[in-house]
Amino acid sequence: MGAIVVEICDANVITSLDIEGIIEKEFPEVAVLNNECLAFCGLCRVRPYAMVNNRRVHGNTPEECLDNIRQAIKEELAVYQ
């Protein structure tokens, strides 16, 4: 498993994108986990989101959220470089 973990809730609209495939292709050192529930039900209904190393990352659209996930990963990777 990677030093950076991205967690996705199966019920969230972000799953309309292949987040696992996209992120793991761009960042092989990152592990993407699909979870049945991340217990942020209010947020899950309102907007796309994911957890990057236990930090909530969201956007107004799945695409914007993906861009924000990429940025959060880059910030986390900077710590290890």
Cα separation of the termini: 18 Å
Count, helices: 3
Radius of gyration, CA atoms, in whole angstroms: 12 Å
**Helical amount among residues, as a percent range?**
40-55%
Order of helices and strands: EHEHEEH
Counted up, domains total 1
Main beta sheet strand tally, sense and closure: 4 strands, mixed
Describe this structure in words.
This is DUF1450 domain-containing protein. Pfam families: DUF1450. It comes from Lentibacillus kimchii. 41% of the residues lie in helices and 25% in strands. The chain is of the alpha+beta class and 81 residues long. The chain has one domain. Strands 2-1-3-4 form a 4-stranded mixed beta sheet, with helices on one face. The longest helix is centred in the last third of the chain and has 19 residues, at 62-80. The radius of gyration is 12 Å and the shape is globular.
Describe how the helices and strands are arranged.
Layout: E1 4-9, H1 19-26, E2 30-35, H2 41-46, E3 49-52, E4 55-58, H3 62-80
Parallel strand pairs: 1-2
Antiparallel strand pairs: 1-3, 3-4
Summarize the structure in short:
The protein is α+β, with helices and mostly antiparallel strands and 81 residues long.
Features:
DUF1450 domain-containing protein; alpha+beta; 81 residues; DUF1450
